[in-house]
Design a protein that fits this description.
Layout: E1 13-17, H1 29-41, E2 45-51, H2 53-59, E3 74-79, H3 95-100, H4 102-116, H5 126-139, E4 144-149, H6 153-165, E5 169-173, H7 193-204, E6 207-210, H8 213-222, E7 230-232, H9 239-242, E8 257-261, H10 270-283, E9 291-295, H11 306-314, E10 320-324, H12 328-336, E11 340-344, H13 355-362, E12 366-369, H14 376-380, E13 386-388, H15 394-410, H16 413-422, H17 428-444
Parallel strand pairs: 1-2, 1-4, 2-3, 4-5, 5-6, 6-7, 8-9, 8-11, 9-10, 11-12, 12-13
Length: about 450
């Protein structure tokens, strides 16, 4: 159990800025909830500043059960947010959108959104966010601000508190702003508006956090003057999400179940996975009655992507079952009924994953369907029940699924116990605890 330092300054106040917070079903919501909870447990007063629930319901979807995962000591301030181009109710269309048509209106709206802050869709949140932070600062001054991105307008909120009120702040990158983590390309030159803003934030930040070493190293090279304040704070798994854990039981000779859980986007090699799965069935690499259960959202928004749904539908006869969203309270049950887990991710050495930590916590065989240089390989390298494709092709995927099926059958009790134990050190609180300890000591000094 993590032991937190004694807080000598009575209840320092953390303002945590996260556009997406419970019950939003955004990719970083678990990290956001866990960070707020950990600071509250360490003796801080925590106020989360985020968007309104109505925005999540309309634009990206919600998981109502996530709200119960937030520590009761965490206060939440919700700031209005309108995403005009994602509005699907014609009764809510503005006269300009009705007159111009959605495509032309979207181009103009995007330019308008970026006037205050250079970020598509989210840039227009800057004014409302800063006003809410000013009001909060008058009521209850902050001792520290942490902003987690993306969206990157969150960083502007933390910088605003620093510039206007002298509040030290931490930038928590769950992704990257200028770096395309999939291709490795630079998305914005250093002298662009984005580059200049990021430089300004980096210069002023108390600490800068990254989810893996590869992304940290890229930024350290770009911003060497800030390198000594950069930290790696990996993702991890959350005990309250997975419930009571125990080493998995041996294979029971029933239909072998493979499971994938996560948001499915065009970056995920879904088509290659479906072809590889179908080929593995045809060649007998996996049992004829094996099932691949796919769970999660199809795309980033509330409306599922039809092209991704079509790929899954085409593989139904091969034993692929798409079950859609899995709420927080159902996650443990999903993992419990699988014999092996499929980790399908986009290509790129900077790409990281939150799900890989949940997978490891299960203690079950894991098959990686992603490029070998993906950062998740670094997490799994010493995991005793891991198989990985050498290349993301249907033939290689089929062969690797076959090896994983063999692992399901032959894994010993010792193998399963070792895999289960491996996950213990990867709890999320163990990743963030050193930073909370350091920040608590500095604020309390």
């Amino acid at each position: 159990m993590t032991e937190w330092p004694i807080v000598s300054n009575a209840s320092p106040h953390l303002v945590y800025i996260a556009w997406g917070f419970a019950p939003a079903r955004t990719g970083g919501v678990y990290r956001a909830i866990a960070t707020a909870n950990a600071f509250a447990e360490a003796g801080w007063r925590v106020t989360v500043v985020c968007a309104e629930v109505e925005a999540y319901e309309k634009y990206i979807g919600v998981d109502a059960s996530l709200e119960s995962a937030v520590d009761d000591r965490v206060d939440v301030v919700r700031v209005p947010f309108e995403w005009a181009t994602q509005e699907t109710d014609v009764r809510e269309f503005s006269p300009a959108r009705a007159l111009l048509g959605s495509r032309a209106y979207g181009r103009i709206r995007s330019r308008l959104d970026r006037i205050g802050f250079p970020e598509h869709n989210y840039g227009q949140w800057r004014g409302a966010l800063e006003a809410a932070l000013d009001a909060l600062q008058r009521r209850s001054p902050a001792d520290l601000a942490i902003a987690t991105a993306n969206p990157n307008v969150d960083f502007q909120g933390a910088y605003h508190l620093h510039r206007e009120h002298g509040v030290p702040f931490v930038m928590d990158y769950r992704d990257a702003w200028r770096l395309d983590v999939f291709s490795g390309d630079d998305l914005a030159p250093r002298r662009s508006r984005i580059g200049r803003l990021e430089q300004r934030y980096m210069d002023a930040a108390h600490e800068v956090w990254f989810v893996n070493e590869a992304i940290r190293a890229w930024h350290a090279e770009e911003y060497p003057e800030t390198a000594d304040r950069m930290q790696v704070v990996m993702n991890g798994w959350d005990p309250q999400l997975l419930g009571e854990r125990r080493p998995p039981a041996p294979f029971d000779d029933g239909p072998m179940r493979f499971g994938y859980l996560g948001t499915i986007t065009p970056k995920v090699p879904l088509e290659a996975l479906m072809k590889g799965w179908t080929l593995a069935k045809e060649r007998g690499d996996i049992p004829a009655d094996a099932v691949l259960e796919v769970a999660g959202y199809l795309g980033y928004f509330a409306t599922p992507r039809g092209d991704l749904a079509a790929i899954l539908d085409a593989a139904t006869d091969a034993g692929v079952e798409f079950i859609g969203q899995v709420e927080k309270k159902q996650v443990a049950g999903f993992y419990a009924r699988q014999h092996a887990l499929v980790l399908a991710l986009g290509e790129g050495r900077y790409v990281t994953s939150g799900k890989v930590f949940e997978y490891v916590a299960s203690g079950k065989p894991i098959v990686s369907v992603h490029a070998p240089e993906n950062d998740s390989s670094n997490v799994l390298r010493e995991y005793p029940l891991w198989e990985a494709v050498a290349d993301v092709t249907p033939e290689e995927i089929a062969a690797t699924l076959g090896r994983t099926a063999g692992l399901v059958r032959t894994a010993t009790d010792q193998d399963r116990e070792a895999a289960f134990a491996f996950g213990e050190s990867l709890q999320r609180r163990e990743q963030i605890a050193p930073r909370i300890t350091a920040l608590t000591t500095e604020v309390s000094a």
